[in-house]
Amino acid sequence: MLNSKRLHQDFPILTNSSQGEKLVYLDSAATSQKPQSIIDAITNYYQTSNANVHRGVHKLSDESTAIWQKSRETIASFFGAESLELILLRNTTEAINGIAYGWGDHNLLAGDIIVTTLMEHHSNFVVWQELAKRTGAKIEIVAVTENGELDLESLSEKLSLEKVKLLALTHVSNTLGTLNPITKIVRQARELNPNIRIVLDAAQSAPHLPINFKNLDVDFLAFSGHKMLGPMGSGGMLVRKELLSSGEMKPWLFGGGMIDSVAVEKTTYSSDLSERFTAGTPDVASAVGLAAACDYLNNLGMENVREHDEMLVQYALKKLIDLPELTVVGPRSNRVGSVAFLYNNVHAHDVAQILDSQNIAVRSGHHCTMPLHTAFSWPATVRASFNVYNTTEDIDALVLGLEKVKEVFRV
Amino acid sequence: MSEDLYQEQIIEAAYNPANMGELGEFDVATREVSNSCGDAFSVQIKLSTDKTVVEDLKWQGNGCAIGMAAMSLVSSACLKKPTSLILKWGEKEMLESLSLDQISPSRSKCMMLGLRTIQSCLKKL
Ligand SMILES: Cc1ncc(COP(=O)(O)O)c(C=O)c1O
User: How many whole angstroms separate alpha carbon A327 and alpha carbon A329?
Assistant: First the structure.
């Protein structure tokens, strides 16, 4: 069990609220807050170790290079992956774009099929639409059931089509909260189609669930470090090493740092896989911060983190479903990270604004899942999302805060 | 405090919006979607014979209270006004019509959606 009240103290933004009023931060699915130890790790890197990596023979460059490599190892092992399988980028979106450019453009032909789902974030949707435009591939979209789960029948149907080359889906929906049965899905996909490649969007699962890249048996896993207590601008992906060493996945950013030798006629790329995909000077400080976040989470224990999230989600569901003026979206169980709802006759932005006036931060809008909102005819939803520092008191504050909406709008 | 946004006048305009509906005959029509929340408005405009003045305007759509109130007020403000004048309006005029001193950048998008829809409609002429 996590002691969230004590953990709270680790997060300066939650304790020194500028308004002098306690901040109830329920928007961690957008980005999490950062503990002091991570802020310190970044500051410390700049104060004592900053230099470019792999570039000089001087001591500081060596030190920075060692820190960079060690950070990469910490992050990769947090995900149960090898360091060479890790490509550090700024976020999930860049990672998915990287898969499209580094893998998609070289491996898809006109008529091939990309299977994705109706519950995807635009990052795991628009990228494939663009790839389809470039290659002539087609997109097939798996339906979502009435209660917000992935429609597994529809999934089987799509996976059984001929020429399916790629399945791209989310581990956890950032709007519905749905946790997809990924083990079962991967097994079925590989049975139906041994050559399929699978992209898992772990943006909303990595902050809350223990993740083992190897056991998940997906080919690509994209994540956002900034949603899992790490610094802004940290994130990336894991790529199964066989895809890297065979050259099936190719570099898509070129320049310094990723080459083996450059001649006027021809350039060869680094055989060191972790170098081949790091073009230009990397953001070492962000990697240091993300590694510190992984250490922080490991210290808490990801099983405890998962349990804490489940407790908060169930508590929020129970409280919010009880309010007659709300319609909670998504399934009632097997969900992670957030609870979103509609407020009868009051627009999501207005609800969020009135909550903000009470120092309660929630997200309102379509949460970058417009196809899902359109399919369900939701104009916009309000989403409360959690992380390790949240307590049931935060959810009580939300419920109380919603009373004010009733007052202002007299609904 | 941000709940000051929700003055009586805004709630009244949002929940009893003026000029909502459809015109039998019109000269131009368009639809605009807000990229931040998916809210959308459509407008139909009927012009004077020399096409310089808005004779009539009706709109439809769904949005937050700020968006609905702003559209309600701006649609009334447009009636019998020269199109050249309407095209010059901006955030300042919208704040004035809602009797607000200021608005956050995110809510400004809500406030401006109605005027933007009307202006992009007039620009099609
Ligand atoms: C499921 C999901 N995928 C992708 C993203 C995109 O993450 P980022 O903005 O860090 O690239 C998000 C973030 O909101 C998300 O929730």
Answer: 6
- The answer to the question of residue B78 being in a domain is yes
Tell me what pLDDT residue B1 has.
41
ipTM of the complex: 0.84
Tokens for A86?
A: 């890790």
Has residue B24 been placed in a domain? Answer: yes
Who among B11, B106, B107 is closest to A409 (CB)? B11
Question: Which domain covers residue B56, as residue numbers?
Answer: 8-122
Whole-prediction pTM: 0.93
pLDDT digits (tens, 9 = 90+) for B70-106: 999 999 999 999 999 999 999 999 999 999 999 998 8
Please report the domains of chain A, with CATH numbers, ordered by start residue: 4-30+301-409 (3.90.1150.10), 40-298 (3.40.640.10)
Overall domain count for chain B = 1
Residues on chain A touching B105 (C-beta within 8 angstroms): none
B-chain residues near A353 (CB < 8 A): 2-3, 5-6, 107
| Nearest CB to A379 within list B5, B11, B38 | B38
In a domain, B15, yes or no: yes
Q: Concatenated DSSP letters for A97-132?
A: HHHIIIIIHHH--TT-EEEEETT--GGGTHHHHHHH
Percent of chain A with pLDDT over 90: 88
Residues A384, B40 contacting (CB under 8 angstroms): no
